[in-house]
Amino acid sequence: MENKDPMIELLSSLEQIVLTRDVVKTTPVVKVRPASLPEPQRLREMTGMEIEEFAQVMGVSVSSVKSWEARRTRPSGSAQKLMQLLHSNPYLGRQLLD
């Protein structure tokens, strides 16, 4: 086993920190678009829910869901977030109903 000078080790570590920090500063920020959501009707059908159940899970009225499905209105931002969760985990809707 080789004994290394602690000062050399410290300087090497500091050099790595500085180099890493410089790389992070120069790395461009890339914005990632969220995956597109399926239409509310497709999502509802994918989760196996009736309109009444889907409305209950989403915390909205049945008429709101029908309006989304007819494309007369768009879901709110929070409803879209919940739809993303349902899309990533289709069983979540059933769990929320229980």
Automatic annotation (TrEMBL):
It comes from the Bacteria. The keyword Transmembrane does not apply. InterPro entries: Cro/C1-type_HTH, HTH-type_reg/antitoxin, Lambda_DNA-bd_dom_sf. Keywords: DNA-binding, Transcription, Transcription regulation. Gene3D superfamilies: lambda repressor-like DNA-binding domains. One of its GO terms (molecular function) is DNA binding. The keyword Amino-acid biosynthesis does not apply. Pfam families: HTH_3 (PF01381). This is Transcriptional regulator. It comes from Paramixta manurensis.
